[in-house]
Recover the amino acids of this structure.
């Protein structure tokens, strides 16, 4: 593609839209990492072959997209513009789709989504509860474009925001717009992005220094994949966001810091950067204006702490990824000791839409009132990765202020397997666990912090009543013990001892004084750690102590784990429902179950390793956890 | 400097903005427990013991005082209950991990902790355990700019190591790490040079280490730009040689000064490594420089420089072009050509060329005006190839003066005035017209006018530390000997007076110029190595023996008398009309104030003539004084009695000088 002029943007958009409208339909095959692991690419290629073999390749086209979001239903094929949603597609289904749908004209019934509760079959995506309450801003193009095709992005309005700001040439006005939108950083801290930009621009002007913009794509929370999906789905939205930010603050160089474990996102980002360079959207004299800007990608090695802004800058500079005190901020002295504006992937992806649709539109979505200051509320929508004990695992984007209940029950479809909701852990490993009694609280930056958790980058792990909250705290603290960089004493030593105490409690060796010690340690770690990793690390313990203290006490005093998780505190027994089918005895890996056919079986408590296989195997409810 | 008012424990205090809070507290005699803090190292804020509570705009928060820069009005509480509780927990964590390390026990005691709940499989019983305080890591990085030591392992697995867990052969055994270790965890296992008293060397070595690490960035920036920092200073003081020493500054100096070099050229940002582990650790190397000429054209090379003298040489040739400067530097180094001699000789050629003393007929077609960068490089390549005009230039100024006057009919007197050489050696790159001390320093130096033996320009002209005639005469005795002493010991002088101790200005200026604190350091190194205590008198005697011996050898080779110590007039005063007029105000003032003349009533030629006579007269007076102080005759020959005094009155030496004793 030759270097573009401003008027080329609407022209390309028009041409691409016309090209797409000429198809009878487009089969959008999810090729996000989740579906790819379930043969997403094979399905795409098979569909393309079937279409060609059927001689329909002038009428229909199969396109690989980024993550559709409804991961529980993957692999997914959506026929657009009709919106017919096929779930759990297998390679052999592709011929059926071509035969029945493309040739025959009627949707493939068995691949349509059936609501597990009501049993209603959804003919189109709109009819599926998972999609209904979502508000797509950062994910506006998910499932609708080929992430490796810049024309697809432009056809959906891409690079038009950039064109507009370059025409107006008022960088300060761009910053004003971002401040007025009230957008706060989607990476965890919730700091107003526009205010950060303004400080950066000022620091660079005051010192007559270069300034950089950086995109934090080092997402490391277990079970969270918002940023990865955004880049896999719509890499140009991040590039355009960074271009707008770069123009606003006066930067010439931008960097994306991405963990190496995201190979697909890495490929797609590189392809997008190359395309943008070729089109003159990155490089010298962008769209023929005096604005020059380019983006380079830094690969991170995957340490969790490298998502912390100062550790990220250290890692980018070739030093060990360890944080430094933030008394002097990155916007003053960041990468190469120059003013540096860091936002995460999702924040950058929001920027073009804010410019396109205006600050007022963005501010009208969400909770609180940001008309005076971005600190007054949480505007816009937030992407969450909804995982754990929930029917509709997947990636969702919902307006700020939506209740937890709406996310979990309406979008998430509730808890499967007939179990009860117990808690939801938000904000990544150093977030907190929120109990059922608080399900109606609004999800926004300030409410979550007040509840002892945090927004973090948007991880949401749902837990049912088979979850032990002490074990959950132990699990997350264990993760953080591993991921603490070890630079400061409270985080390095304190977390280690917290983990040891939690382990002890789970092992049935808890002491009366343990809860007090945990609280003392948690307090010191929270208030004296060098960076936010340490400062927020006690949250899993503090929030579970706040809402589930009785479970700790039961573990310590009664030596009991009500969820049946902590092996040292449970035993398996066989009750009189046993019909002597021998299935459990055959399944037991250590031969701890004895009994004759058609007679009551018995578990040898000494030999039992509490693996739970017998419990899962028994079809008669005869194996009990006590 | 902007000041900020803060309240510490109820007491109002004013501190300069950006002062670290801990320092502000210590100034008031308020101490808090610290472990990772070290007075000579940048704060790392890792032990967290120095936490205090601050209140800003009504909001309270906890900060580590060691690295918290005071920027606005704050209220500080250093020992609130909340803070004491945190310190207690931290001390308990420390005590649980390292129960027998004395500094940990002290901290625990101070924080009111005697028992720890936090013993575990990580507990180390050793009294000399590493407590991860980071002193050694920062010391290695900050004192000598190496990174031999660092931590590996995350979280609780953090441990001190060298790369890949092996003993790193790059460690030069400077022992800084062991010195700053508070527990004795780092043991020094060898003393290869077998010094008599290694501890004495370390104690004083660490003093220098700490000064370089903490003061250089505010004084010379040797660790950022090497000696190139002087370019900016010399230009500001009208001392930077421009157009063969005619002028002392130029509007285009900014194109080759340290700011430009730092911004666009000095990319390596690690010590040059002329002496690995050096406390000063000059860093100035250019990486990936693409050559535009010569046999390596198109190749990307690493260039160790430019140093001050090379950059100033470019100014002397009127070549204010940093690309040229780096390329010139590279090829001089590669060919084994001294950048100073090359630049000074070329500047002379250029002036002669511009004055019409030689033409393209003589230069083989090279157009050698000031600033002719391409022609200079071509001449340099010719010199290396042994071809053309380059071969002549390679013979040096003395040879060229002779040849041009004899063979090309050039004006010999003029060439004598502008040819900046003595004893056949080209001048190094300082304009010394206004510095009597430097004039004599240059010309009476045994091997010729280089700055190594008597670099007095800075103390004379920039710091104004030797204002009187007596001061200058004394400096011409002391410094050549002191500087020769460095040569005797094989030491670098940059560490002595480029960075000076913070309290150096407490001495009267002529003493401050000697940097007594650092002189003491070097005497202690000598003593630590040899076991022989040293003082100024003994040092001067050691050095004077060699210095006089050198002068006698010079005499033996046909130099070493007064006639060989007389500088060209360019080194003493303005040769040309243009040169005089460019600083007319200064020279007129001198005629008036020093000679009681009225310049208004004088013709230019007359003024020049009078000034010339006066300046040479002053020069000779200073030379007399220097000879006298050195124990030399009026003809500059060491007196036999001086040799006796020094115990080097060997018959073969006396034989060389005995006939020159009458003057």
């Amino acid at each position: 593609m030759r270097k573009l002029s401003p008027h080329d943007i609407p022209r390309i958009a028009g041409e691409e839209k016309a090209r797409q409208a000429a198809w009878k339909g487009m089969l959008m095959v999810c090729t996000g990492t989740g579906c790819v692991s379930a043969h997403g690419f094979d399905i795409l290629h098979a569909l393309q072959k079937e279409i060609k073999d059927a001689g329909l390749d002038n009428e229909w086209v199969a396109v690989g997209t980024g993550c559709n979001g409804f991961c529980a239903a993957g692999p997914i094929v959506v026929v657009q513009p009709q919106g017919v949603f096929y779930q759990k597609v297998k390679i052999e289904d592709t011929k059926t789709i071509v035969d029945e749908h493309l040739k025959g004209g009627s949707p493939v019934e068995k691949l349509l989504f059936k609501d597990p509760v009501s049993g209603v079959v959804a003919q189109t995506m709109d009819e599926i509860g998972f999609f209904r309450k979502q508000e797509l801003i950062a994910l506006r193009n998910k499932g609708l474009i080929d992430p490796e095709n810049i024309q697809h992005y432009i056809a959906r309005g891409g690079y038009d925001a950039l064109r507009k700001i370059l025409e107006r040439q008022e960088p300060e006005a761009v910053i004003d717009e971002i401040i007025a939108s009230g957008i706060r950083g989607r990476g965890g801290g919730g700091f107003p992005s526009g205010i950060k930009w303004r400080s950066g621009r000022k620091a660079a002007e005051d010192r007559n220094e270069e300034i950089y913009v950086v995109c934090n794509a080092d997402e490391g929370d277990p079970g969270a994949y918002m940023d990865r999906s955004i880049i896999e789905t719509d890499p140009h939205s991040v590039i355009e966001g960074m271009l707008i930010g770069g123009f606003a603050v006066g930067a010439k160089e931008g960097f994306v810091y991405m963990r190496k474990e995201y190979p697909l996102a890495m490929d797609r980002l590189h392809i997008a950067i190359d395309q943008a360079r070729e089109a003159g959207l990155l490089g010298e004299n962008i769209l023929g204006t005096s604005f020059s800007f380019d983006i380079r990608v830094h690969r991170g090695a995957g340490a969790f702490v490298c998502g912390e802004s100062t550790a990220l800058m250290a890692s980018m500079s070739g030093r060990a990824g360890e944080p430094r005190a933030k008394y002097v901020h990155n916007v003053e002295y960041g990468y190469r000791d120059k003013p540096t504006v860091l936002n995460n992937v999702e924040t950058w992806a929001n920027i073009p839409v804010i410019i396109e649709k205006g600050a007022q539109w963005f501010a009208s979505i969400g909770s609180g009132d940001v008309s005076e200051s971005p600190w007054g509320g949480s505007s816009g929508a937030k992407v969450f990765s909804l995982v754990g004990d929930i029917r509709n695992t997947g990636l969702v984007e919902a307006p700020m202020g939506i209740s937890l209940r709406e996310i979990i029950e309406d979008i998430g479809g509730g808890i499967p397997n007939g179990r009860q909701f117990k808690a939801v852990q938000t904000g990544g490993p150093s977030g907190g666990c929120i109990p059922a009694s608080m399900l109606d609280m609004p999800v926004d930056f300030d409410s979550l912090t007040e509840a002892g958790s945090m927004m973090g980058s948007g991880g949401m792990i749902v837990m049912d009543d088979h979850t032990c909250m002490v074990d959950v705290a132990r699990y997350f603290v264990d993760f953080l013990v591993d991921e603490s960089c070890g630079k400061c004493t409270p985080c390095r030593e304190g977390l280690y001892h917290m983990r040891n105490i939690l382990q002890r409690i789970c092992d049935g060796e808890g002491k009366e004084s343990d809860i007090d010690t945990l609280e003392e340690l948690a307090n010191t770690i929270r208030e004296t750690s060098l960076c936010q990793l340490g400062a927020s690390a006690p949250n899993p313990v503090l929030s579970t102590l706040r809402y589930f203290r009785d479970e700790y006490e039961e573990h310590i005093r009664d030596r009991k784990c009500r969820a049946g998780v902590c092996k040292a505190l449970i035993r398996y027994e066989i009750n009189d429902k046993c019909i002597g089918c021998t299935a459990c005895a055959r399944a037991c890996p250590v031969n701890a179950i004895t009994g004759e056919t058609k007679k009551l079986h018995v578990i040898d408590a000494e030999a039992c390793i509490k693996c739970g296989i017998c419990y899962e195997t028994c079809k008669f409810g005869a194996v009990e956890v006590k | 400097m902007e000041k900020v008012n803060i309240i510490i424990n109820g007491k109002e205090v004013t501190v300069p903005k950006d002062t670290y809070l801990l320092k502000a507290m210590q100034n008031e005699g308020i101490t808090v427990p610290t472990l990772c803090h070290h007075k000579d190292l940048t704060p790392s804020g890792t032990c967290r013991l120095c936490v205090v509570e601050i209140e800003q705009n009504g909001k309270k928060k906890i900060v580590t005082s060691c690295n918290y820069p005071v920027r606005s009005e704050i209220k500080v509480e250093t020992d609130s209950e909340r803070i004491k509780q945190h310190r207690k927990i931290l001390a308990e964590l420390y005590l649980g991990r390292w129960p027998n390390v004395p500094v940990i026990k002290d901290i625990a005691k101070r924080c009111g902790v005697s028992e720890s709940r936090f013993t575990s499989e990580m507990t180390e019983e050793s009294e000399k355990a590493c407590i991860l305080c980071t002193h050694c890591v920062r010391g290695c990085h900050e004192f000598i700019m190496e990174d031999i030591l660092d931590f590996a392992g995350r979280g609780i697995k953090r441990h001190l190591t060298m790369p890949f867990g092996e003993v790193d052969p790059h460690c030069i055994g400077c022992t800084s790490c062991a010195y700053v270790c508070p527990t004795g965890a780092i043991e020094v296992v060898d003393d290869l040079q077998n010094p008599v008293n290694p501890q004495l060397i370390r104690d004083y070595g660490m003093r220098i280490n700490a000064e370089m690490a903490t003061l250089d960035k505010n004084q010379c920036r040797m660790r950022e730009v090497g000696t190139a920092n002087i370019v900016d200073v010399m230009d500001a003081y009208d001392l930077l040689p421009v157009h063969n020493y005619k002028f002392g500054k130029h509007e285009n100096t900014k194109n080759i000064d340290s700011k430009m070099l730092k911004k666009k050229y000095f990319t390596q940002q690690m010590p040059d490594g002329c002496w690995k582990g050096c406390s000063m650790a000059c860093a100035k190397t250019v990486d990936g420089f693409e050559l535009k000429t010569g046999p390596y054209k198109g190749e990307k090379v690493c260039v160790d420089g430019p140093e001050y003298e090379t950059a100033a040489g470019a100014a002397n040739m009127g070549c204010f072009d940093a690309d040229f400067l780096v390329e010139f530097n590279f090829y001089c180094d590669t060919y084994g050509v001294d950048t100073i001699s090359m630049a000074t000789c070329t500047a002379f050629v250029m002036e002669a060329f511009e004055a019409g003393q030689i033409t393209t007929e003589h230069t083989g077609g090279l157009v050698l005006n000031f600033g002719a960068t391409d022609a200079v490089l071509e001449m340099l390549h010719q010199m290396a190839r042994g071809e053309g005009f380059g071969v002549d230039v390679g013979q040096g100024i003395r040879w060229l003066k002779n040849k041009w006057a004899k063979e090309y009919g050039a004006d010999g007197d003029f060439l004598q005035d502008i040819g900046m050489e003595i004893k056949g050696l080209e001048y190094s790159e300082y304009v010394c017209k206004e510095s009597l001390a430097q004039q004599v320093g240059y010309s009476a130096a045994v091997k010729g006018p280089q700055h190594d033996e008597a670099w007095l320009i800075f103390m004379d002209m920039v710091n104004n530390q030797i204002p009187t005639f007596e001061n200058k005469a004394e400096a011409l005795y002391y410094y050549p000997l002191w500087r020769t002493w460095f040569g005797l010991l094989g030491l670098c002088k940059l560490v002595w007076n480029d960075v000076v101790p913070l309290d150096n200005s407490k001495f009267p200026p002529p003493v401050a110029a000697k940097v007594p604190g650092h002189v003491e350091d070097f005497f202690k190194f000598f003593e630590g190595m040899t076991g022989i205590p040293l003082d100024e008198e003994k040092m001067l005697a050691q050095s004077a023996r060699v210095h006089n011996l050198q002068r006698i050898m010079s005499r033996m080779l046909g130099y070493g008398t007064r006639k060989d110590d007389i500088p060209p007039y360019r080194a003493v005063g303005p040769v040309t009309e243009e040169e005089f007029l460019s600083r007319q105000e200064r020279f007129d003032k001198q005629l008036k104030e020093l000679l009681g003349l009225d310049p208004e009533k004088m013709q230019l030629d007359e003024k020049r003539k009078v000034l010339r006579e006066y300046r040479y007269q002053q020069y000779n007076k200073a030379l007399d004084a220097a000879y006298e102080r050195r124990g030399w005759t009026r003809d500059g020959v060491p007196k036999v009695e001086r040799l006796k005094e020094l115990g080097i009155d060997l018959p073969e030496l006396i034989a060389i000088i005995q006939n020159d004793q009458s003057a």
